[in-house]
């Protein structure tokens, strides 16, 4: 068995925390992809399934570094948040990605302090991935909120345009009729 580097003890513990959370992310994304219901199922299912690959890749990187530092990778996931609605799932994933970024920023500092510059650089890449994931979820949530707001004000702008043809730009007026003869 490899000996644990004493100067890297906190880093190993932190990387194991990150590894447990990556396992939890894999479980969460896979579960959400399978349990989705409603009109957004196909789109969100492929989004969630696509994230599983990144989270597994992160888990592999973390496990390898833990072993290289003389530690033993955890085999237990962190607690997994659940949600019943697509909006709840998106909010849960957004929060998990935000927490992951904060953990990885802290871990990067620990790696630098331990003199593990290669690990620190790799953590920068993981931070970039997690930031991209978080930002994608935020953009979806922003659109979701806008969609719900327009629905709560008596209909969408497309419905309003059908009710008042003059409110549409001139280049689109009459296309519905012209296009229906094709």
Structural overview:
This protein is mainly alpha-helical and 182 residues long. 72% of the residues lie in helices and 0% in strands. The protein has six helices and no strands. The chain has helices spanning 9-35, 41-68, 86-113, 117-152, 157-163, 175-179. The longest helix has 36 residues, at 117-152.
Distance between the termini: 74 Å
Class by alpha and beta content: mainly alpha
Helix content: over 70%
**Number of separate strands:** 0
What would the average pLDDT be, to the nearest integer? 83
Q: Which stretches are low in confidence, meaning pLDDT under 50 for 5 or more residues running?
A: 151-182
Largest sheet: none
Round the Cα radius of gyration to an integer and report it.
23 Å
Shape: elongated
* Count, helices: 6
Strand content: under 5%
Secondary-structure element string: HHHHHH
Question: Features of this protein?
Answer:
mainly alpha; 182 residues
Topology:
Layout: H1 9-35, H2 41-68, H3 86-113, H4 117-152, H5 157-163, H6 175-179
Helix pairs in contact: 1-2, 1-3, 2-4, 3-4
Q: Short summary of the structure?
A:
72% of the residues lie in helices and 0% in strands. With 182 residues, the chain is mainly α.
